[in-house]
Write a structure and sequence with these properties.
Blueprint: H1 2-22, H2 36-42, H3 45-52, H4 65-69, E1 75-76, E2 89-91, E3 102-104, E4 107-109, H5 119-123, H6 128-144, E5 149-150, H7 174-189, E6 194-200, E7 213-215, H8 218-225, H9 227-236, E8 240-243, E9 247-248, E10 251-252, H10 257-267, E11 273-275, H11 284-290, H12 300-311, H13 317-331, H14 348-362, E12 364-368, E13 381-385, H15 387-390, H16 410-416, E14 420-422, H17 426-435, H18 452-461, E15 464-470, H19 481-485, H20 489-504, E16 508-514, E17 530-533, H21 541-549, E18 586-588, H22 597-602, E19 620-627, E20 636-644, E21 653-659, E22 671-677, E23 686-693, H23 695-698, E24 700-702, E25 707-710, E26 713-720, E27 726-734, E28 738-742
Parallel strand pairs: 2-5, 5-6, 6-8, 7-9, 7-18, 8-11, 13-14, 13-15, 15-16, 16-17
Antiparallel strand pairs: 1-2, 3-4, 9-10, 12-17, 19-20, 20-23, 21-22, 21-26, 24-25, 25-28, 26-27
Helix pairs in contact: 2-13, 3-13, 6-7, 6-14, 7-9, 14-21, 16-21, 18-20
The chain binds beta-D-glucopyranose.
Beta-D-glucopyranose binds next to loops.
């Protein structure tokens, strides 16, 4: 009898243990308490798929509390409260937390975060410490507004100056883009929130962005379009990556296992999750298989489609489980999971100070006659013209736009700084802006005419003229060559007339360029005594511009993108935005690796202002270039001494270009491999800058061998103030060819691309 009871008890215990691992409904495992693998095991197929398709109130499943909490944000993931899985809140974007106003009953709820300098502006600082500092403050706003993932940074390569979203992106060079993104991601994520580096990859135009097929060689992909992402993934560990709208070599990026798994995960070691761009890609099953974990913003039909594919065996449940596991591992790291009590009240005053000082570090002084047209003495009488002087562009439009509490125009900034303004132009320019209707969101505002009589009058009354050229661009469309990249005739006439009238009085004309992208400068620059490229500097625009104009801050920004003499000189001009011209579907990247300065310097095409260029109110000398060895083994160190030779304090951006020997592959004549910004150097002060070159810095991508190979031979180390202004050169040898890294044979083009060659 006793024996039977014991057996019964044992059986009961076995049943109980077995039951506890399948988790009865009443006691399911909880995220954060139980291992992720057990959460995955306990999820129903429906729950798994709900997690992998973004949600809002319309998508089936439990109403995501994130969609309610985060109204105004761009996207959400599902809440599965049974298992302790909170929904995530995702918000744009690169220049500030973007939260759209919304209504609760009749009450309008709106948040007004800091509008930071845009991406192209931040990159022109060439200062990773500064960009990280911006990221730390910006990330605090992400957290305090209750957001888990910031949909930024945008880090596509600026292949062509007409791309409407260039303002969001950093550079034509992947090393600048990669290290800027690294600094930004580290800064933002130091707050315990996530980022989404985007748009992976080759989203280099807005025209037909969701259909366009970019035909790109493996080498150009590896060396130019993927390289920045690789740097950011390996150095900053972003919590998410966002795939792009376009196709590469025939397939949507979100549907390419070779891009999203082989390269991103297997080669670069990415462990977090990938999301699609909003309604990007077409085939959700292919996206799941590629391991594009989350489909955004999510539709009920996509949930049904994925569930059906699992049920009919076309989609392996193991793929779903892996995608879910990676998402859960990220959720564990977010404020929503940690139940962070956000305040909705970040310290906007402190952040405005950081935004102002950051903007000053990003401005590029393009011209300064005799080194003294700028800075301007306090109290001068300024004639301020140009609509953008009064309606200054702080950033671009689309998902990268921000709604800050205020915007400081150039007019406000100069007034705040104590300058006197001649002629009361503000009402006229502001009214002109309000009443002039442009053809579309993408069309620029023609400049308001100012009569010759008025110009002559102000030239006698004022001490100096300032004219601001303004340009805006954004998501959903590309810029035009005429009346956008090229100036309007009216703008050119005004610049010429102002120049002549003021010069006749022995007075100067200063031009401020307030843009998110490159414009033509060669035809009008001779009329100006100084040109300050202010970019789109964020909400403190005018104050930051006044800081530089007055000399409170010495300009230290340099161009992270070439300003060509004319649009036709741009290496991708023949192949942008693609064919057929009325509705582009295909774009062939025939310029190959010769993007930006790689083209201008290799083919001796003189730009208007070259990559890396920027003046200062002081001058710097470069001396004592030393290499740690004359032969490369595992690495080589280069040191150089920078000395401030002028009369005011300033910072210098030091650039290291490498010229590699050409054996099997042709190479650009020089490539940026490292850069640094000095501290603020007092007159006479010096600083030693140290760079380290690693095997990968010597290597090019050999398509035949699917490997990064450094050719044996002599390498020239060029220490420059810009790509054209090389100050010191030294050499080292690599005794034999070095296979630095083996990669996979993937992303192969389907057509023969007629790539540009030197020989
Ligand atoms: C943009 C993304 C953005 C997303 C969410 C898309 O249209 O391309 O950059 O993050 O919308 O707003």
């Amino acid at each position: 009898m006793k024996k039977i009871t014991l057996i019964k008890l044992c059986l009961l215990a076995i049943v109980l243990i077995a039951c506890s691992t399948v988790y009865p409904e009443k006691n399911p495992p909880q995220l954060g308490i139980n291992p992720v693998s057990e959460i995955v095991k306990a999820m129903t197929l429906e729950e798994k798929v709900q997690l992998l398709v973004g949600t809002n109130k319309r998508v089936k499943g439990e109403i995501s509390e994130a969609a309610i909490r985060g109204r105004g944000a761009a996207g959400f993931t599902s809440t599965i409260s049974r298992l302790g899985i909170p929904g995530l809140i995702m918000a744009d974007g690169p220049a500030g937390v973007r939260l759209q106003p919304y209504f609760i009953d009749d009450k309008k709820i709106s948040y007004n975060p800091t509008a930071w300098p845009v991406g192209i502006s931040l990159a022109s600082s060439w200062d990773t410490t500064l960009v990280k500092k911006v990221g730390v403050a910006f990330g605090n706003e992400v957290k305090e507004y209750g957001v888990d993932i910031l949909l930024a940074p945008g880090m596509n390569i600026q292949r062509n100056p007409l791309n409407g979203r260039n303002f969001e992106y950093y550079s034509e060079d992947p090393v600048v883009a990669g290290y800027m993104a690294t600094a930004f991601v580290k800064g933002i994520q130091s707050n315990g929130v996530g980022t989404s580096i985007k748009h992976f990859a080759a989203n280099n135009q807005e025209t037909d962005r969701d259909k366009i097929n970019a035909n790109i060689s493996e080498r150009a992909l590896r060396e130019i379009y993927l390289r920045g992402f690789e740097i950011a993934v390996k150095n900053a560990n972003p919590l998410t990556v966002m795939t792009s709208y376009n196709k590469i070599n025939g397939t949507y990026t979100a549907e390419r296992p070779d891009l999203v798994t082989t390269i991103l995960r297997d080669e670069w070691g990415f462990k977090n999750f990938v999301m699609s761009d909003w309604n990007g890609g077409h085939d959700v099953i292919a996206q799941m298989k590629a391991r594009n974990n989350i489909i955004m913003p999510g539709k009920t039909s996509q949930i049904d489609e994925i569930i059906a594919a699992v049920k009919d065996g076309t989609l392996d449940i193991k793929v779903i489980d892996k995608n879910v596991e990676e998402v859960l591992n990220v959720i564990l790291q977010t404020p929503s999971f940690k139940k962070y009590k956000y305040s909705n009240k970040p310290d906007l005053t402190a952040h405005a100070t950081i935004a102002r000082s950051a903007a000053t570090e990003c401005m590029v002084l393009l011209k300064n006659n005799n080194n003294n047209a700028l800075p301007l003495k306090n109290g001068l009488n300024i004639a301020l013209l140009g609509t953008a002087s009064y309606e200054t562009f702080i950033g671009g439009f689309g998902s990268g736009a921000v709604l800050p509490m205020y915007k400081v125009s150039v007019f406000d900034g100069l007034t705040n700084a104590g300058y006197k303004l001649t002629g009361n132009f503000k009402p006229a320019f502001s009214a002109y802006k309000t009443k002039t209707i442009v053809a579309s969101a993408y069309a620029q505002l023609p400049e308001m005419e100012v009569s010759q009589d008025t110009i002559k009058k102000i030239a006698t009354e004022a001490d100096i003229a300032i004219f601001t050229i303004g340009r805006n661009s954004g998501e959903g469309g590309d810029r035009q060559v005429n009346n956008d990249f090229n100036l309007f005739e009216g703008e050119k006439t005004l610049i010429k007339n102002l120049s002549e009238a003021f010069h006749a009085q022995g007075k100067r004309l200063i031009v401020i360029v307030n843009t998110g992208g490159v414009i033509e400068t060669a035809s009008w620059r001779d009329f100006a005594d100084a040109i300050l490229l202010a970019w789109q500097p964020g909400m403190e625009a005018g104050n930051a511009i006044a800081d530089v104009i007055s000399g409170v801050v010495t300009p230290s920004g340099k161009l992270a993108i070439t300003f060509p003499m004319k649009y036709e000189d741009v290496p991708s001009a023949k192949n942008f935005p693609g064919t057929p011209i009325e509705k582009p579907m295909e774009v062939n990247y025939e310029e190959g690796i010769y993007v930006g300065y790689r083209y201008y310097s290799s083919f001796n095409v003189k730009p208007s202002y070259e990559f890396g260029y920027g003046l200062s109110y002081t001058t710097f000398s470069y001396s004592g270039l030393k290499l740690s060895s004359s032969t490369f083994k595992d690495k080589i160190t280069a040191t150089v001494i920078i000395t401030n030779k002028g009369k005011v304090s300033g910072k210098e951006v030091v650039q290291l270009y490498l010229s590699a020997p050409e054996k099997t592959l042709e190479k650009p004549s020089e490539e940026l491999r490292a850069f640094a910004k000095t501290n603020l150097l007092k007159p006479g002060e010096s600083q030693m800058i140290t760079f380290e070159l690693n095997p990968r810095d010597l290597a090019s991508y050999n398509t035949d061998k699917s490997s990064w190979i450094a050719d044996g031979g002599t390498y020239k180390v060029k220490m420059g103030a810009s790509s054209d202004d090389i100050k010191l050169i030294s050499e080292f040898k690599l005794t034999k060819d070095l296979v630095v890294e083996k990669a996979h044979k993937v992303l192969t083009p389907n057509i023969i691309i007629n790539e540009l060659k030197k020989k």
